[in-house]
């Protein structure tokens, strides 16, 4: 792995106008995009880098990979805070949703399946074998 420094890396701009230079500004834009649940494609457009550049940076710069992973988790944290906040305020519908999704075995929808079997199609030996 390449050792990272605080200076900019891989200077350049591709023919299509996308940035290839690894800069704090580019990293900040990518973090902001992922913190807002952008897809990789959307984040790259937002930061004016190519997907190839993004994936190269993930491999080349371990701290970048960690920063992006943390940014991707932020949306989930925000959503949990909103849901738990609503539950704490006594919101019944949110509380039901939480219980159904977090404790579905106890509070989820119970599905019942009815099965009909025509035992007349079984031979006498099969009925004996299956205990019917």
Please explain how this structure is put together:
This protein has seven helices and no strands. The chain has 132 residues and is an all-alpha fold.
Q: Provide the residue-averaged pLDDT.
A: 84
Counting copies of identical and different chains, the oligomeric state is single chain
Provide the succession of SSEs: HHHHHHH
The structure class reads mainly alpha
Approximate strand percentage:
under 5%
Number of strands: 0
Number of helices: 7
Task: Produce a short descriptive summary.
The chain is an all-alpha fold.
Properties at a glance:
mainly alpha; 60% helix; 7 helices; disordered N terminus; elongated; 132 residues
Give a topology summary:
Layout: H1 24-35, H2 40-47, H3 51-60, H4 62-88, H5 92-102, H6 104-107, H7 124-130
Helix pairs in contact: 1-2, 1-4, 3-4
